[in-house]
Design brief:
single chain, alpha/beta, inorganic pyrophosphatase (n-terminal core), Diaminopimelate Epimerase, Chain A, domain 1, 2 domains, six-stranded parallel beta sheet, binds manganese (II) ion
Length: 355
């Protein structure tokens, strides 16, 4: 079923809080291969719900899980979809947070789609599928889904952000930090810093979170990083930097599929580079494709709004944000490189002409 509805908000944070107050059982779902914002927003919201008497919220995750998520989710009912399947008891509400795209919810689709009338989207992405949930709160200005989740948590618990319980504040801080590149990216605003300050006041140990999430590399990851750096190619007069990883690189270094986080940022440290691309050969089996069919994951980051990563990735069937987006290409690394270059080059050239 493809909805013809537009990707726009149909509800508000206070209406969402009211819906959740009236729900006994809540399932919180986020995008597959959860990152800091997906994990943080889902855990923060589920914990806030569980602090309310008579409520039971659980979080569902699918796809490769970062190692740091296991200690972080302790104490919160969590369902690993591939292992546990869907809930045995019907949820009164399903919250889909930090995504609203079927492509990022593949594992959950068969469960969520027939329950779309009971589903609520809380998301900050520029694109999504309206059919995922009838109720949608979309704020593309939000730096992180955690920023939005913090608002709902405060409404549910009737408190200010600085008075949120520590176990709610910590995951919210995590998502705020990771989606802003630990407060370095263009999405850092005064509101982001104020919320971060409030969450610190609530007792978050920022350095402990940083160590838990960012300083957990394996030697294999650093060896894979060396391969990515060695693959660097520079295109469009130095404006585009591309790094790539083959499945052979993964096998030979022993690194896992979840250990390529941050690789897309590597070319951005080059002064001339305005758009940074990371290509990784994916396992077709992971996406139910026949063995041998080439599949490449494409990630793009840009340093200027003049080069729109979302527009470039949409040309490849993906999407995301203006400065950060991704796509999956059914083709080889070289084919994916040619496609993303073709999508980015006109914007790079238009940018050069404005200078
Ligand atoms: Mn996010």
């Amino acid at each position: 079923m493809t909805s013809t509805e537009a990707w726009t908000s149909t509800t508000t944070p206070s209406e969402i809080a009211a819906r959740l107050r009236g729900a006994g059982r809540v399932l919180v779902v986020t995008h597959m291969k959860p990152d800091g914002d997906a994990a943080g927003s889902s855990l923060g919201l589920a914990r806030a719900i569980n602090l309310m008497p008579g409520k039971r919220a659980e979080v569902a995750y699918a796809g490769p899980m970062p190692a740091w998520l296991h200690p972080l989710r302790e104490g919160t009912p969590t369902r690993i979809w591939e292992r546990d399947g869907g809930p045995t008891e019907e949820p009164d509400a399903i919250v889909v947070i930090d995504t609203g795209s079927w492509s990022q919810l593949e594992a959950f689709r068969a469960y969520v789609e027939p329950r779309a009338a009971r589903a609520i989207i809380i998301d900050h992405h520029r694109r999504g599928d309206a059919g995922v949930a009838a109720a949608r709160w979309i704020d593309v200005e939000a730096a992180a889904a955690c920023q939005m989740a913090a608002g709902v948590c405060c409404l549910l618990l009737g408190c200010l952000p600085e008075h949120l319980p520590h176990e709610v504040a910590a995951p919210l801080y995590l998502g705020l930090a990771t989606d802003t590149g630990w407060f370095r990216h263009s999405n850092v605003t005064a509101d982001v810093m104020r919320l971060a300050g409030d969450l610190l006041e609530a007792g978050v140990d920022a350095n402990a979170l940083y160590q838990t999430v960012e300083q957990q590399d394996t030697p294999a990851r650093l060896r894979l990083l060396a391969r990515a750096l060695a693959s660097l190619s520079i295109e469009e007069n130095g404006r585009i930097g591309i790094v790539r990883i083959t499945r052979r690189d993964m096998a030979e270094t022993g690194a896992g599929a979840s250990e390529t986080g941050g690789f897309v940022d590597l070319p951005q440290t080059i002064a001339s580079v305005k758009a940074s691309v990371f290509l990784s050969e994916a396992d077709p089996a992971e996406y139910s494709l026949p063995a041998g069919s080439p599949l490449t994951k494409v990630s793009v980051r840009t340093k200027t709004d003049l080069i729109d990563a979302d527009v470039a990735c949409r040309a490849l069937g993906g999407g995301g944000h203006r400065r950060a987006a991704g796509a999956r290409v059914r083709g080889t690394l070289d084919e994916a490189a040619a496609q993303i270059l073709a999508a980015l080059a006109p914007m790079v050239r238009a940018m050069e002409q404005r200078r």
